[in-house]
Write a structure and sequence with these properties.
Rossmann fold, seven-stranded mixed β-sheet, single chain, 46% helix, 177 residues, alpha/beta, globular, 7 strands
């Protein structure tokens, strides 16, 4: 199982203070990947690639966006090591995803948000446009201060069916109806 293979990377990441989802939330993502078998994934917040490896371990094409070029270099090495098909984009996730929603007709099976918390609400509409029907938008750290507006919005949005997963600081899993 990929989570076992990632154990050492998890330990190293925590020791170095790299914010990753860890194995408990990783298990949730793993189960969703097994259930949905996504082919296209969009991730906002690359870090060192830990969550992207879980999301892409069945061979999905991942587009991942982050502002930190230094950590992206490490992510690329980790993706290569785990044979993950990832397109790593350096830049502002809010701006890039907003542009993608305006200019792209391609849809994603899963979108994973784990970047600047105040950006979640800013990308919500774009993510709804970019995720296919019955696809998922999963947001990490949903109990953080900057995520409360996003949490409220996805719970009320009639285009989505959202469940809050109480693992650590929480996840929101929103299925597009």
């Amino acid at each position: 199982m990929i989570l076992e293979e990632l154990k050492q990377l998890e330990i190293e990441s925590k020791d170095r203070g790299i914010p990753i989802i860890g194995s408990k939330k990783g298990r949730f993502l793993y189960k969703k990947v097994i259930e949905l078998k996504p082919r296209r994934i969009l991730e906002l917040g690359t870090a060192n690639g830990y969550s992207g490896i879980i999301l892409g371990h069945l061979g999905a094409e991942i587009t991942t966006i982050d502002v930190d070029a230094k950590i992206q270099k490490e992510a690329k090495q980790n993706y290569k090591r785990f044979c993950i098909n990832a397109n790593v984009i350096n830049g502002d996730g809010v701006k890039i995803v907003t542009e993608m929603a305006k200019n792209s007709s391609e849809l994603y099976d899963v979108i994973f948000l784990d970047f600047i918390k105040k950006g979640y609400l800013e990308v919500m509409e774009a993510c709804i446009k970019l995720v296919r029907k019955n696809g998922l938008i999963i947001a990490d750290n949903i109990s953080f201060q900057g995520c409360q507006d996003y949490k409220e919005a996805v719970l009320k949005d009639k285009r989505l069916r959202t469940e809050i997963i109480s693992i650590g600081d929480g996840l929101a899993s929103s299925k597009k109806l």
